Amino acid sequence: MPESIATPSSALEGIDRPGHFGAIRQEGPGVVLGEVCPRSIVQLESNDLSQTLRSALGLNCAPAVGGSAMAPHLAVLWAGPSRVLGVSGQLSAKQLEYRVVESTADRSLAFIDLSHGRTVFQVSGRDAKSLLAKGCFLDLDRLEVGGSAITRLGHFTVHLHRANGAFELYVMRSFAHSLWHWLCDAAEEFGYEVVPRRCWEMAFLP
């Protein structure tokens, strides 16, 4: 029987209308904002995370602190001690759960489906770092491509990942509306473009 997957509506429904806003310069908008929608976002936590990721996902080891790793159809982002975030544009959370549970006997493993509880924004453009620096305490110049950190952005806690050509912000769905307005307000001085909502792609990763 085909798997039945509920597709949640966006937390920004009717708000993130595409277009150009703010002080657009001759060279175009300095910031590009948009929501991206992974098919699944899951959290894995284990006392033996490296072994679990090796047996379940084929990774040689867990991502380094503040880093990320790649598995087939899956990005694995560091999310704290013994914890990672798995993000996929193709695999459902049920498919990931089956793969993990069937391939490991790790009794300490905790698998949590966050797909319906997180919203993901992408921030790119020549002034993306300047925009995020308004509310983020991290030294973004030292955050390399593939870097992953849980930090504050304004009044919000976000999981920040530096992808290839963009910053990804993972935020709790209930705060998505407020964070979106914060980003838009902060981007006014640079001029910004809102792009249509799209599927999350592995191409944004290193």
Notes on the protein architecture:
The chain has helices spanning 49-57, 93-103, 128-133, 173-187, and strands at residues 19-21, 31-37, 40-45, 68-71, 74-80, 83-88, 110-113, 118-124, 148-153, 156-162, 167-172, 192-194, 198-199. It is of the alpha+beta class. The chain has two domains: 19-37 and 118-204, Probable tRNA modification gtpase trme, domain 1 (Gyrase A, domain 2); 40-113, Aminomethyltransferase beta-barrel domains (Alpha-Beta Plaits), CATH 3.30.70. The strands form two sheets. Strands 1, 2, 8, 9, 10, 11, 12 and 13 form an eight-stranded mixed β-sheet that branches. The protein has a five-stranded antiparallel β-sheet with strand order 4-5-6-3-7, covered by helices on one side. The chain is elongated, with a radius of gyration of 17 Å. The N and C termini lie far apart (36 Å).
What structural class should be given to the helix and strand makeup?
alpha+beta
CATH topology of the largest domain: Gyrase A, domain 2
Major sheet characteristics: 8 strands, mixed
Q: Name the average pLDDT.
A: 90
CATH class of the largest domain: Alpha Beta
Summarize the structure.
This protein has 4 helices and 13 strands.
Please give a handful of descriptors for the protein shown.
206 residues; alpha+beta; Gyrase A, domain 2; Alpha-Beta Plaits; 2 domains; eight-stranded mixed β-sheet; five-stranded antiparallel β-sheet; 4 helices; 13 strands; elongated
